[in-house]
Amino acid sequence: MTAMDLEARIDRLESIEEIRQLVARYALAVDTRDLEKLVGLFVADVEVGRLGSGRAALLESFREGLAPLGLTILSVGTHVIDLVDAASATGEVYCTGEIDRDGVLLRQAILYRDTYRRDPEGWRFVRRNHLLWYSAPLGVDPRHLPPANWPKGHVGRGTVPEVFATYREFAGIDDHRGEI
Fold first, then answer.
1. N or C end of the chain: which has fewer CB within 10 A?
2. Separation of first and last alpha carbons in the chain
3. Where are the domains of the chain?
4. What's the CA gap between 8 and 58, in Å, rounded?
5. Residues with Cβ within 8 Å of residue 80, at least 6 apart in sequence
């Protein structure tokens, strides 16, 4: 093994760990409502949709999105990271959440589909796509709920796992809801 090989392997391992920490820091920042820290986890030129781009727009988006919520507890689980090159990566993250919305404590099973980029500040989110397996009041079996129509609806079944072509093929499902 050459010194260059060793440096590349160390950089790869450090990158993966930094991205894992980025995801964990996101969950903690949401739960503690540390919005400054939260927006700092994203690239400076983050696209925010109808609010434009940049961290100021993202801050407004998080203020709007978190305002109706009380207590949140996000627990990160499975995290698959694919390094594209030395400065870009993608990932899929499982997350469960207990979320107080309008006085009802909901249990959510979430799949985040992430895009990451390394910039002078380190690894940051470029984009987080939040998909649902389900969102249900505690004690309610989510398999018997109607579709949530996320993000408009907050209670019901989501589009995961049916968005995966491999799952649809395995389960014999012809219909697809936005393939991943």
1. N
2. 38
3. 3-171
4. 33
5. 91, 92, 93
H or E element in which residue 109 lies: strand 104-119
Within 10 Å of residue 142's Cβ, how many Cβ atoms? 20
Residues 6+ apart with CB under 8 A from 130: 110, 111, 112, 150, 151
d(CA 89, CA 91): 7
**Helix and strand totals (H; E) in the chain:** 4, 7
Question: How does pLDDT run across 89-122, given as a tens digit for each residue?
Answer: 999 999 999 999 989 999 999 999 999 999 999 9
Q: Which fold has domain 3-171?
A: Nuclear Transport Factor 2; Chain: A, (3.10.450)
3-state class of 155 per DSSP? coil
**Coil, strand, or helix at residue 122?**
strand
Instruction: Record the pTM.
Output: 0.91
